[in-house]
Amino acid sequence: MNKKTILILFIFLYNTTSYSQLFKYTTASFNSFSAYYLDDSKTGDFNENNRFRSNNYLNIKSNIDKNWNLELQVESYAPNSLLNYSPNFKETNLSTFNIAYNKNNLNISIGNFYEQFGSGMTLRSWEDKNLGINNSIRGLNTKYRINDEFNITALIGQQKKGFKYSKGYILGFDSEFDFSKITNGSTLLLGLSYVGRNDQRTKSEFFPETTHMFSGRLDYSSNSFYSNIEIIDKSKNPITVFGSLSNTFIKKGSSLLFNSGYFNNGFGIDFTFRRLENMSLFSEREAYGNPYNESIINYLPALTKQHDYSLANLYVYSAQPNVSFQTNDLMKVGEIGMQIDLYYFLEKNTFLGGKYGTNISVNGAVWNNLDGNFDFNNQNYDTDLFGFGQKYFSELSLEIRKKWSSKFDNIFLFINQFYNSRFIEEKVGEVNSNVLVLENTYKINDKKSLRFELQHLSTKDDNKNWSAYAIEYNLNSAFSVYFSDLYNYQNPKQEKKIHYYNFGGSYSKGINRFTINYGRQRGGLVCTGGICRYVPESSGLSFSISSTLF
C-alpha cells in the first residue's frame, strides 16, 4: 500500500467519523519517536546515511455499532527507523488492520490481532514500541464463552514482521474451565492449550513441517493466597547449529512454571520457579537468533526483579531457553531457576516505622543451565529434571522506602549480582558486582519538587567501577527538566572512560506529552518486562510525542 492510498483511507475514515452515524465512537492516538544522530569523539562518528530518523505510529479504533469494531494502525519510518530496529521497518505503510464482531458470548476477529494463552509460554503476540516488537497475528481469531464457566479460543494466521508476514502458519486452541462456583469463595481455573507452527519453508525428510506445543495449567486464589502451575510439552524441532538447521540434532522441548504467594497484614511473599528446555519457537525456523525478537511465538521473559536504575541494569539477565553447543566447555540447553520476593510494611507511629511507616522489600534470584549429560561431538544430551548446572546469574537485593516528613522521602537500594558473561552472552568472563542507590525527593510546595539520585557499581571484573547521578526538577505537574551522567571512571582503557551524560525535559498538556533529550546512549541491552534488545552507542538529540487525537 503506497502513501497516496493511505492518505485517501485516512480522509475517508475522518470524514465518515465526523459527519455520519456509521462510526458512533472513534478514538485515535499518535506516537512519534525521533532522533538526530551526531558525530562524537567518545561514542564514535555516525557512519551511516540519514542522521535524522523517526518511528511514527497512528492508531485508530472505532465502534461501528454495538456489535462491530474496527482498528487500524499506520506506521512510518522515514527516512529510516531508529538505530537497531529491524530492517523490515521502513517507509510508510498500513501496519495492522482488524475487524471484530461481538454478540452475546461470541467474538470473531479478522485481520491483525493480539492473543495470549496462559502465561504466554506457548503463545503471546503483543506490541512494544520501545523494543521494536509487534508480532501480531494476521488471520482469524474466534472466542466463545459459555455461562461464565467455560471459554474457548481458536485461531489461525501468519505472524507480522515489520510490514511483512511469516511464511509459516500458527494454529492455536485454548480452553479454560472455571470451577469457582464449587470452591466456596475461592477461584479455581483449569486451562488446556495447543499451539502448532507449520513452516513450509524448511521442508525436510529429517523433521516434520509442524512443531506442536501442548500446555496444561491450574490457577487457584483465595483472599490472601494464590498459586498456579503450568506444564508444557514441545515436539521435536531441529537445533540451529552455527546458523544452519541440523538434520541430526533434533530434540524435544519442555517447560515447567510454578508461582505461589501469600499476603496479609502488611506482609507479602511471592515465589516463582521455572524450568525451560529447548523452548524458543519462531514462526519461521530460520528466524532463530535474530536480534530484533522478530517471529517469536512464545513469551519467555527473564524472571528477575525489574529495576528502574541504570547501574542496576548494567549486567541485566536475559532468559536462556535455547540449545547452544559452541565448544566442549560451552553447551546450553535451557535454564532452571527461581525468584523470591518478600515485602513488609512497618506500620506508622512505631519505633521502626516512624511517623509515616516504612516499606521494606527483599528479592533473590538464581538462574542456571540445566544439568545432565552433554555430548558435544555427537550433538546430543540428556538432562536431569531438577538438576542445576552451570550458574548463569544470581542477584540479592534490599530496598527500603522511607518517608521522613511531609516534604522529604528517599529510597535506599543495595544489590549483589553475579553475571556469567561466558554463558549468557557466549563471550568471556564473569562479573561479581555490588550496586548502591540512594534516591531523594524533596517536595518544595504543592506543585514543585526536586529529585536527586546517586548510584555506584563496584566490581573488580570486566570494566571495573561505575558511578551515576541524576537531578530532576518538576516545576509543576506538567513540566519537568533533568540532567544525568553515567561514568565508567575505573575503566582500564583510558579512551573508554566516557561520561554518558543526558539532559532534557518533558511537557504534558491535557492528553498530549512531549519529551526532548540531548546526550549519549551507552551501548548494551535495553529491557522492558524482561525482554531485551541491543542498542549501539550513539550521541544526538531525541524527542517524542504522545497524543490522543480524538
Description of the molecule:
The structure is a single chain. This protein is mainly β and 550 residues long. The protein has a domain at 1-103 and 463-550. It is 4% helix and 61% strand. The protein contains 2 helices and 32 strands. It has helices spanning 3-19, 421-424, and strands at residues 25-37, 52-63, 68-77, 91-103, 106-113, 116-117, 123-124, 127-128, 133-134, 137-146, 150-161, 164-178, 187-198, 210-221, 225-241, 244-264, 267-277, 324-327, 330-332, 334-346, 358-375, 380-403, 408-420, 430-443, 449-458, 466-474, 479-487, 499-509, 512-521, 524-528, 531-535, 538-548. The strands form 5 sheets. The protein has a 24-stranded antiparallel β-barrel. β11 (150-161) and β12 form a beta hairpin. It is globular. The two termini are 25 Å apart. 27% of the residues are buried.
In summary, what is this structure?
The protein has 550 residues and is mostly beta strands. It is 4% helix and 61% strand. The protein has helices at residues 3-19, 421-424; strands spanning 25-37, 52-63, 68-77, 91-103, 106-113, 116-117, 123-124, 127-128, 133-134, 137-146, 150-161, 164-178, 187-198, 210-221, 225-241, 244-264, 267-277, 324-327, 330-332, 334-346, 358-375, 380-403, 408-420, 430-443, 449-458, 466-474, 479-487, 499-509, 512-521, 524-528, 531-535, 538-548.
